[in-house]
Design a protein that fits this description.
binds zinc ion, 77 residues
Length: 77
Amino acid sequence: MNDNLKNRLLGRGPLDRGCEAGMAVVDQYVEAVLRGDDAARLFPAIVAHMDGCAACREDIEGLIEALRNIRPPDDRV
Ligand SMILES: [Zn+2]
């Protein structure tokens, strides 16, 4: 297993549990960001993973952007 693949699967630091673990809570993380909560404090593991994994960072940032566009912050429910 090369280092690149290992990092992607297992993560790079003590908080980073890898892509699979990050994606398991990504919807909660995105919801927190959209609510304006301190998502970095609530989900340190996913932030740590995004630091080390450009693919996930792009996915998650893209998801946040997409949701912002369909659900603006001043949306009245
Ligand atoms: Zn990843």
